[in-house]
Amino acid sequence: MRRSYVLVALAVTTLVALAFCIPLGMLVITAAQDRALREAERQALGLSPVVVVATTRDLVLSSILSTDAGREGRVAAHLPGLGTIGTSRAGEAEIAVVRQRQVAGTADVPGGRVYLRPVALPRGLIAVIEVYVPATQLRAGVDTALAVLVLVAVVLIALCAFLADRLAAQVVRATRDLARTATNLGAGRLHARTRPSGPSEIEEVGTALNVLADRFGELLAAERALAGNLSHRLRVPLTALRLNAEAMPTGDDRERQLRVVDRLEQEINAVITEAGRPLVARPRLECDLGAVVADRTAFWGALAEDQGRPWQAAPPPAGITVPAAFSVVAEALDVLLGNVFHHSPDDAACHVAVRSSEGSTEVVVEDAGPGFADPAAALARGVSGADSTGIGLNIAQRLAVDTGGELRIERSDLGGARVVLALGVVSPVSPGSEPPRRRWWRLGGGAHARI
Fold this sequence. Notes:
Blueprint: H1 2-53, H2 57-65, H3 68-71, E1 75-79, E2 83-86, H4 92-101, E3 105-109, E4 112-120, E5 126-134, H5 135-138, H6 142-186, H7 200-233, H8 235-246, H9 252-276, E6 287-288, H10 289-307, E7 311-313, E8 321-322, H11 326-343, E9 350-357, E10 360-367, H12 375-378, H13 392-402, E11 406-411, E12 417-424, E13 440-442, E14 448-450
Parallel strand pairs: 7-9
Antiparallel strand pairs: 1-2, 1-5, 3-4, 4-5, 6-8, 9-10, 10-12, 11-12, 13-14
Helix pairs in contact: 1-6, 6-7, 7-9, 8-9, 10-11, 11-13
């Protein structure tokens, strides 16, 4: 941007300088020639009375030699009857034309130009006085004047380029400050503010950015306080639920209910902790996808067994690390499996598998239920064609996108839906290699974690 400002200033100033310097240069050249020819005309006029009364060549020659131009051999007189007196450089044709027209004129000769002036003599004769003007006199002072013009033009161009560079530096400095502040805000450093500077328009943008940052901080604080308060209010019914579970007879059902209560309590504590932690203090988030899939398939597999639902969960491959928290991935899997149990009959089969490839991995959930009538609408947040909130699939989709993957809804070979959750994976760092560059991943709640 700064370079563009300077280049534009250089181009415009150069064009303006050329538009003025070229006509001025031509005017200087013309003025120098006119000045030299006027001096030649003055010398010819001074010799004219002598030519009119002269009867001998010696008188005319002595008059010519009495002038500086005559002594330099630049004056000649062409007299009828007396011939040419002095040093002549004009041709016979030019002299004849001046005699015939009786009008003074000039003619170019090698090394300069000659001024020819007709003089009327008695008995209707015409004499011609010739004054030679060398090229050095025709261009006397021209080189100096042109050098001054070029110097002035260069100074003006350099001054305009300098002023344009200073203006561009001010604009670029203010723009970079805005970009730096916006980057810090995007990275979660909500205390970052810009110092409005530069042109008035950029100052307005900086002021608006600061107002936006203040408002964003207020809204985020309110949302985090609301999330913490709501999560804390859930502790009362959670305590009652735990007491009811502990009062159940000893057995598998009691243990299963207690595990559910423990999981719910962990999620509530995680929400409260996350709501109170600054965005820039968020920890590095990674988890073993195989462990998450094994945990959630074990939980939903027990429910499938109670319902008598055909269930198949292939053992997930080991060593797959995804850039997201365990709870976030578990929430996405619960969404996909919960949809199967909520929106399909109890006898509809369900298959879960993990397919791994270079750079990504896919969790595939298939069922033999009715499937999705409109897959695109099913992914829209808050839109649901069934008895649900319409948020679950959108949460899973955001997890996939934030890790560099995608969420696809296809038709399953079982007759129902096939939901493919494609997730980006964390590349392992070999010994001696450089660590991967840090990237920012967005979590489901809008926060960011640095990998």
